[in-house]
Amino acid sequence: MIDEAGQPGAVFWDMDGTLLDTEPLWEQVLVEFANRLGIEMTPTLRESTMGNSSPDAMTKVYDAALVPESGRDFEADEAWMVQRVIDLFAAGTPWRPGAVDALDMVAAADIPMVLVTNTMREVTDVLLETIGADRFVATVCGDEVEAGKPEPHIYRRAAEIVGLPVRRCLAIEDSPTGAASTFAAGVRAIIIPSAIPVPPRPTFTFRESLVGLTLDDLVAALA
């Protein structure tokens, strides 16, 4: 289940809300999108979109606005959203507390890392300028798999990339959607709730933040 050193064979990092504090910016764009459709973004609607892939989040807003299937221009609306988030992210995105030290700690242990995010590739590449693409052996985005989180495909793909069984990998997540994806994929996870509580599962280990995360914490979460 774990290697000779008792540590994970690979660590999979979620991005939005886990490493970077992007959720307020995504919320701003979704509020603007809802307004374009003639509705207000209610707390319930916003909560339902947390951690979703772009198509899933857009579908929920379309549904709330009662937009018929024939009136849903996913291609044009997604292009608008992508440009808006790129514009906002280009101004700089703050790190979540403890994120840089946690990344450095895992790297110092020579554990391969994969960035696993529901965010589309075009936006992820912009944010990697802040995080540092060289930290990861690979990145997997929500628009590069059959279905994004909460489905298991994105985590299973990450395990394939590093050539390890999922039981030897550890994920770090923040949202119910991302946590559900790890559970469906059979990947144990450390959960750092950032906005919405995550229901407990036997494969989840909860922490208040990434501050002070140690290699022993990773070993304990995988054991």
UniProtKB/TrEMBL annotation:
<dbReference type="InterPro" id="IPR023198">
    <property type="entry name" value="PGP-like_dom2"/>
</dbReference>
<dbReference type="InterPro" id="IPR006439">
    <property type="entry name" value="HAD-SF_hydro_IA"/>
</dbReference>
<keyword id="KW-0378">Hydrolase</keyword>
<dbReference type="GO" id="GO:0016787">
    <property type="term" value="F:hydrolase activity"/>
</dbReference>
<dbReference type="InterPro" id="IPR023214">
    <property type="entry name" value="HAD_sf"/>
</dbReference>
<protein>
    <submittedName>
        <fullName>Putative hydrolase</fullName>
    </submittedName>
</protein>
<dbReference type="InterPro" id="IPR036412">
    <property type="entry name" value="HAD-like_sf"/>
</dbReference>
<dbReference type="Pfam" id="PF00702">
    <property type="entry name" value="Hydrolase"/>
</dbReference>
